[in-house]
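Notebook B, p. 112. Complex prediction, attempt 2.
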Amino acid sequence: MTEPDISALAHDLRIACMRVARRVRFDADNTIAPHLFSVLARLSEEPRTVGELAAIEQVSAPSVSRTVGQACEAGYAVRSPDAHDGRLVRLSLTPEGQEIVRRERAHRDAWMTGRLEEITAHQRQVLREATDLLDRVVGP
Amino acid sequence: MTEPDISALAHDLRIACMRVARRVRFDADNTIAPHLFSVLARLSEEPRTVGELAAIEQVSAPSVSRTVGQACEAGYAVRSPDAHDGRLVRLSLTPEGQEIVRRERAHRDAWMTGRLEEITAHQRQVLREATDLLDRVVGP
DNA sequence: TATTGTTATACTCTATAACTATA
DNA sequence: TATAGTTATAGAGTATAACAATA
């Protein structure tokens, strides 16, 4: 593959990925707002503080604080004080919050699954390899 | 590939694509707002009306009208009346607008190109095939 | 004095409804 | 009367600055 081809691939691959991301967010009429889902998804991994969420999501602390307030008000998350540092607020998902995250993920996956059922097994194998490559190339 | 594997691929591929989209938007510290770039990118393909842009971008006509106003004010686009229908407003890019789009695309592509240079030619070939597949699967 | 989180305030993007001009 | 676009108004998310509590 020559230099120009690498650039062309970079362009086409970027466009394709952004299109998928866009479709998933728009077409799969999601029931939960993107910013709220992002926070809940992070908390589903493990309990975190407001500051940690702000750093991970790359938004301001006040913005996260507000979103967390919505999550708690909706019964998806709970605040609890840190045992050793009174300034910290530990955030964790309730069972309802975990269920919301699970359902939302299933919803998004279902949309993608439907598309993949339209192609051949061999083509899916190509996408499988490409997915693993992307994970390594783009990083965690 | 069995059923569960298709679901797993759907999940992993979706995550990988959304991660790429996210990295491009964050890492490649872009100089132009996403909604404005989207409109300019559409106009770089061909002149369009407000209604066409609204339909393509899936946002309301007033929202597009506002964004177009910004584009015109910044000197990136110009409004011109339609010859046959006085209600229509034809929008097209100025040379400055074309340059902005070109530069922004180059910026985003450069990030992706850097990643692709780290892998082998064979691996890039896999991504090339996967990209073409994604285009067909996800649609235009 | 520095850090964590929240509250106050303003700005931006988007949407619906109302309005103007043209078909 | 229907359509294309703009203007008016309101709602939601985010940011910076100011504040309260704790280290």
